[in-house]
Amino acid sequence: MERKLLEVDNLKKHYPVTAGLFARHVADVKAVDGVSFFITEGETLGLVGESGCGKSSLGRTLLRLEEPTSGQVFYKGRDITAWNKKQLKELRREAQMIFQDPQSSLDPKATIGDSIGEALLIHGVTSEKERLARVEALLQRVGLEPGHATRYPHELSGGQKQRIGIARALAVNPKLIVADEPVSALDVSVQAQILNLMLDLQGELSLAYLFIAHDLAVIGQVSSRIAVMYLGQIVELADRDGLFQRPLHPYTQALLSAVFLPDPHRKRQHIPLAGEVPSPIAPPSGCRFHTRCPRVMKVCRQETPIFQPIDKDHLVACHLYDGK
Ligand code: SF4
Question: Which domains does the chain have, with CATH numbers?
Answer without folding.
Answer: 4-321 (3.40.50.300)
